[in-house]
Amino acid sequence: xxxxxxxxxxxxxxxxxxxxxxxxxxxxxxxxxxxxxxxxxxxxxxxxxxxxxxxxxxxxxxxxxxxxxxxxxxxxxxxxxxxxxxxxxxxxxxxxxxxxxxxxxxxxxxx
Length: 111
What we know:
Elements lengths: L3 H9 L14 H32 L1 H19 L2 H4 L9 H16 L2
């Protein structure tokens, strides 16, 4: 969601358009526009999450591609760091990597 300040900036542009720049700005009206703009700014993100979630359900190989990429990021990020600290890297094991990747993707895309 965009901040109220960002939404007010967008709403204020209404009074900068060629057809409306001669109008006196109404702060109460600008704030009402801003509140509506804030609500609409959330819709694209939620729709995108829903679209990806539906694609995961329809095509397991699409979801697996995401899982594999997240899993390898985990492996790459922690490959040497944990060993240097004296810990065993849990992401060396593919099952651990995949389980963590599934958990991350579930938190991002599922409701």
